[in-house]
Design goal:
Layout: H1 10-17, H2 24-28, E1 52-63, E2 67-71, E3 77-81, E4 87-91, E5 112-120, E6 123-132, H3 133-141, H4 143-146, E7 148-150, E8 156-158, H5 161-170, E9 177-186, H6 196-210, E10 215-221, H7 229-249, E11 262-263, H8 276-282, E12 284-292
Parallel strand pairs: 4-6, 10-11
Antiparallel strand pairs: 1-2, 1-5, 2-3, 5-6, 7-8, 9-12, 10-12
Length: 298
């Protein structure tokens, strides 16, 4: 069975897995602005008087105390200074992130961003950095598997290079897996809280997957037909997020062995929504243990 995720959030994990374990990509592709430029002093407190720079879209592939590297879909890397005057904004997301303005600590590796820049001293300074709250949540979940920083020469290096490189090696064809097992946990109507039995089942599933070579987890949330489509979409994603958090925090499942969670609302029901019993079966999150077809059985 093939799983192909077309949701925007899936770009975070797949892009993070494609990041180099060393600074090779940074060195091979030239930035539009020289990353070796030495800038004396700090950017001004008011950026409004500076010449406008390009707007950059991509994901954060490395970061330091006062700068980030943004990798665009075409592979181009751009180094951007994050100043005190940089406005960092997040749209309200399904996981309760409703603050309009955030701090630099929200700029995690793998986070898709849109950056408005200005030119200063031969470098680019971020005037505004925008991203979705849902993307920030996903980037936070996989942070330990994709964490990167800059070395003294300005190249991106990985703090978890061995794990990332091993994962990349296992997933030569990332969208093709064998499903080894599926564990379903169930929820009350309109709720996302995990029951005691659900918690036990999740850790049992994680232990089963840990015993398999090269296993990953794919978490998919569902609802019954109660409620509107929009409400059910949010609820299914919230349930999936709750399961992912518990697997990582309580069951010690490594974030870099987790595929991007998905909410499917009332799609793909297990039973008819015409009866209370059927609805109870459809209010679920499925935890799928996957192994890449390229390595399964080796």
């Amino acid at each position: 069975m093939t799983f192909i995720s077309r949701r925007p959030g899936a770009f975070i994990l797949f892009a993070a897995l494609a990041m180099p374990a060393t600074g090779g990509l940074f060195a091979q592709q030239q930035d539009p602005y020289n990353p070796d430029i030495t800038v004396n002093g700090l950017p001004p407190a008011d950026l409004s008087g500076l010449n406008e720079g390009p707007e950059i879209e991509g994901f954060i592939s490395a970061r330091g105390d006062d700068r980030i590297q943004v990798t665009s879909p075409d592979g181009t890397n751009t180094l951007v200074i994050v100043a005190a005057a940089t406005e960092i904004r997040s749209s309200k997301g399904i996981f309760g992130i409703n603050r309009s303005t955030l701090g630099p600590d929200a700029l995690l590796n793998g986070l898709p961003v849109t950056v408005k820049t200005v030119q200063w001293g031969g470098a680019l300074v971020a005037n505004q950095i925008r991203f979705r709250g849902t993307d920030l949540k996903t980037a936070t979940m996989i942070r330990s598997g994709t964490s990167q920083k800059f070395n003294e020469q300005g190249a991106a290096i990985s703090e978890n290079a061995a794990a990332t490189e091993a994962l990349r090696g296992r997933l030569g064809d990332i969208d093709k897996y064998n499903i080894k097992s599926t564990t379903n946990v169930y929820f009350d109507t309109g709720k996302s809280a995990l029951s005691a039995s659900a918690k036990n089942d999740l850790c049992a599933a994680a232990a089963e997957a840990e015993a398999m070579d090269n296993a990953l987890l794919l978490v998919v949330g569902y609802t019954d037909s109660t409620g509107s489509e929009d409400v059910n979409q949010v609820l299914s994603e919230k349930r999936a997020g709750r399961v992912v958090n518990y697997l990582q925090q309580a069951c010690s499942w490594k974030p870099y062995r987790m595929l991007t969670p998905t909410g499917m609302a009332e799609a793909d029901p297990m039973a008819s929504n015409d009866t209370p019993e059927g609805k109870a079966q459809n209010r679920r999150v499925s935890v799928n243990v996957l192994v890449s077809k390229g390595v399964d059985g080796l």
